[in-house]
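[09:14] KT: can someone run the structure on this one? pasting the chain below
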Amino acid sequence: MQIHLAKTDITEMAVDAVVNPANSLGIMGGGVAGALSRRGGPSIQREAMSLAPIAVGAAVVTNAGQLWAKFVIHAPTMEEPGTKVGVENVRRATRAALLAAAHHGFEVIALPGMGTGLGGVDPADAARAMVDELRAHRQPKPATVYLVDLRDEILLNLEDALRVASG
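[09:31] RB: done, structure tokens below
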């Protein structure tokens, strides 16, 4: 698996799928979910809510509306919108997103800093958990993962976690 870091807006990624660090209800109000919903349109949230409840540690795939991406992988980090979560939820959501990508045969996905916004997880802890799950994923798909965020703090922590994991 190739892993790339990018300081970019996940809503503008032309990939097979973008990952939404969702809530179990499929409500896309704030954070990355809100941005995806605003840019992609209401059909994404409608479909996500029709598949709810989505357990933390599970993931569902929906249409991507008007996004450049083809699909959205909804991987809940929290049960209720706006809930503070622990790092284990980041780990479980990242694993679920990767398994959903593999199941659907997605080659390229974009993964934001999971749980680092509304979830309140320490960026360094979240980055280590995400990179651990990327390294543990042994399936051929996704072949490429873009770790994306607009926040320098998240990207620096992801970069540090990748450096530690590879060396």
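[09:33] KT: thanks! Strands lie at 2-7, 17-20, 60-63, 71-74, 108-112, 144-149.
[09:34] RB: yep, looked fine to me
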